[in-house]
Design brief:
homodimer; about 260 residues; alpha+beta; Arc Repressor Mutant, subunit A; 3-stranded antiparallel beta sheet; DNA-binding
DNA sequence: TTATTCGTTTCAAATAATGAAATAGAATAT
DNA sequence: ATATTCTATTTCATTATTTGAAACGAATAA
């Protein structure tokens, strides 16, 4: 009685189609969508038209390809400015960025995944995966683990159950048990590492952002490459990061996290 | 014949509700939405539930308030990275930002308005769609006028008809005729000014980004305050901006603008 | 207590979405 | 030029979701 969603709901269907288009990460044609969706062609066609005229999809008449539309960007701006930590944390992150010349991320949990909501590049930016708005796995990123470690048990359970545990690298913690023991250590030491668990050559330290009642609102991380530094070195940033996290938490005290159900 | 929308379509309705929530720019309760929407309470209630469980809206159980949800941020990231000029223009904007220590914007036309898709602040280098995503009026911003001036006549007409011509400041060109003559001059000189037409104390220069076939794909601007500089000074940036715009256009030559219908 | 306000549920009626199959249109092959 | 093979689009009777007035319940105020 719990698992799959009932097929009902026009809005659900439309969202599903949007997700499909998003997953392609490139413009797609009707037939490509047909082949990966449960809906018949006629239905999909009409749905795509609707999404297109509403501006949720962009359409190229010459190639007959659909992509996500800019109306989403407009809508997301409102969501981001109201409901992400980014506006609240901005000044604090700026400060941290001035004293640490590495890539800094601000992330939140969203739908059991990590959502990067802000980012500062080092002066010499490293070309890597991740930008604000990007999502990543919770179980094998620094920010993800930092947040998971401080979640109340019930919430943690439900999130862990939804992880894919894909082994991105040889070092990925690709099982729930491995992850759980890592989380325990993170909780006791107060910060998390990512030791090339998501991308080879990329390491980071992350600290959670906790309110006075110890609920997790986000995390910040400092990222670097193994070519240039070590985890041990990154560790020296932790005190400054924790101070920043505390300051953000204080500013966010009266801000209500969308993750709280 | 042109104005109001037919009431049909579940997706349309859902989007309308999202827009209403977005327009409040703060969390809102059911009854507030009821008072500004054409739908009865029961209908709205169910719609909000749907949007909420889909993650398009966030909900605070204690205050019963809805806000835009972070799923939009996730979706928008795909839209932004595929369909905005930003990823293509990034390196070029970075370069420009290094030689000009002022705020730089990259904008596109979207639904007859200006959509800022990237931004560089004088000091901190950030690239993300989040502070981008903001929309502004086309008729009284530098980037807006720069783009309008180079639009084909038919397209321009339809866009001009949709402007609100609100006089934000005393200097705002608040009529179609005033705007049209300004556009003519912009077209002949190749760049546009914003002389405090949108915000008092804020001035900017903007140049259009034109493909080899002279179609408008976007615009870049350099913004400053009257307290610190003058339009005459800003003008000196124009050659560099035009060079950058040309380079972006070259990179974007094979990129298809969503605005082309 | 009694009003009042707001959120939630109900259920028959109204309406929008469905999908199999036919049609139109484009591109490629013969 | 004509046939062939894709793909996109339309049709229409059927199906199922959405609708909305009104009733209900919960919470707060008077």
């Amino acid at each position: 009685m719990a698992a799959t969603s009932t097929s009902s709901g026009t809005v659900q269907k439309a969202l599903h189609v949007l997700d499909i288009v998003a997953d392609f990460k490139r413009p797609v044609r009707l037939n490509e969508i047909v082949s990966v969706s449960p809906y018949p062609k006629g239905t999909l066609y009409r749905m795509l038209q609707t999404l297109r005229t509403e501006g949720l999809l962009a359409y190229d008449e010459y190639s007959n390809e659909y992509s996500l539309g800019m109306r989403l960007v407009r809508l997301a701006h409102s969501a981001w400015s109201q409901f992400s930590l980014a506006p609240i944390a901005r000044a604090h992150i700026d400060g941290l960025s001035e004293s640490i010349d590495e890539t800094i991320h601000l992330a939140q949990l969203e739908a059991s995944q990590v959502l990067y909501v802000d980012k500062r590049n080092a002066k010499r930016p490293v070309q890597m995966y991740s930008q604000a708005g990007k999502i990543g796995p919770a179980y094998c990123t620094g920010v993800g683990k930092a947040m998971l470690a401080f979640l109340p048990e019930a919430h943690l359970e439900s999130i862990l159950a939804q992880q894919s545990y894909h082994a991105f690298t040889q070092k990925t913690l690709d099982s729930k048990t491995a992850l759980l023991s890592a989380l325990e250590q993170i909780k006791s030491q107060g910060f998390a590492f990512d030791d090339e668990e998501h991308e080879p050559g990329i390491i980071c330290v992350a600290t959670p952002i906790l309110t006075s009642s110890n609920s997790v609102v986000g995390a910040i991380s400092v990222t670097a490459t193994t070519a240039r530094t070590t985890l041990e070195n990154l560790k020296s940033y932790v005190p400054k990061m924790q101070e920043t996290a505390n300051n953000i938490a204080q500013s966010a005290e009266h801000w209500r996290s969308p993750a709280e159900h």
